[in-house]
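Table S2 (text version). Query chain:
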Amino acid sequence: MRADQLRWKRTQARSFLLAFSLPNIHRSCAGVVLSIASLALVGCEKEQAAPPPPPDVEVVEVAQKDVPVTRDWVATLDGKVNAVVRAQVAGYLLKQNYANGAFVSKGTQLFQIDPRPFQAVLDQAKANLAQAQGNLQRAQAQLGKTEIDVARYTPLAKQQAISQQELDDAVQANLAAKAQVEASKAAIDGAKAAIDNAQLNLGFTRVDSPVDGVAAIATAQVGDLVGPQSPSPLTTVSTVNPILVNFTPSEQDYLNVAHLTGGEAYLRKLDFELVLANGSSYPHKGHIYAINREVDVRTGAILVQAEFPNPGNVLRPGGFGRIGAVVRVQQGALLVPQSAVNELQGGYLIGVVGSDNKASLRPVKTGPKVGTMWVVAEGLKPGERVIAEGIQRVRDGMVVNPKPFQENPAGKSP
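Corresponding structure-token output:
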């Protein structure tokens, strides 16, 4: 019995060893590898779950100082005088006597209209005057004769040397002679008026510049039939030194500025600056020239004109720009970079960083812009740190990593 049992145990031992053959060993190793990989994944999950570092933001302290408050408006340039030159008589244009776009002096001949028809009318008027003067002389001679007849017939009629009828005829002839003299004088006056009119029309054939200024490119050509009824003027001459700058502040803006500056008298003392269409600043200052008498009911704006020196006639009517002036100085204004102010649904928010480096989004009330800065009227205190860059990565109550605000090389906040 013992020998059989020993053989049976040896058989079970061989089966146990076969069960743990090479393939099974590979399975065991794979299990160990999977276990190690699982542990690595668990470690990665634990690493990903770690909180991120606070976001970097650039902060700047709220500055407090006195700042000039400016207002600016879109502006258009216009000549101080824009003389529209039209033909005052009808005729053919014979000559243009100026260069298009050139500066012309007052009295300079611009155009010549054919003067011959008007010269003929003048000559006829002079002839009519001479004829009227001859008629007057004859009428005066006839009046002298009738007056002598009346003086001679009157005593004779009293002496009944002549009939009363002869005296009456002499008196009537004298009255008729007087009337003829008066008619001749009136004819002379009419002839003189005709001469004046003819001379005036002849003078209109020479078209002169009424002012000193820059003459526009002519709209009529030599050979054109021109006249008072022509649809277009011959040219326009504009006085451009000084030149006017027109701008139209709203009624509310005008009243606010007038209130801040103390009325129209102070407005006229303000120095205005002009920024041209190419972005350059005009080197000369301007002053109020005129304020219109009314507010335009269609636009709710009022026309204001400022006068600027224009040496060299560089500025021309029709140009565009922006005009502005310092209307007052705000004492102790709180200033932040414009990049720190964020508009949201019609309001403004600023990110403020506390001493614990926690950020809070705070609504503020803004004032005017001053250069690259923005005046904050309400919502901030001097010395508080505001986020100038990086607020898009910040939520209210979040801890941040504040760094000094770096302006761009031009000295302007981005």
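Notes on Table S2: Residues 15-42, 410-414 have pLDDT under 50 and may be disordered. The first helix runs from residue 2 to 19.
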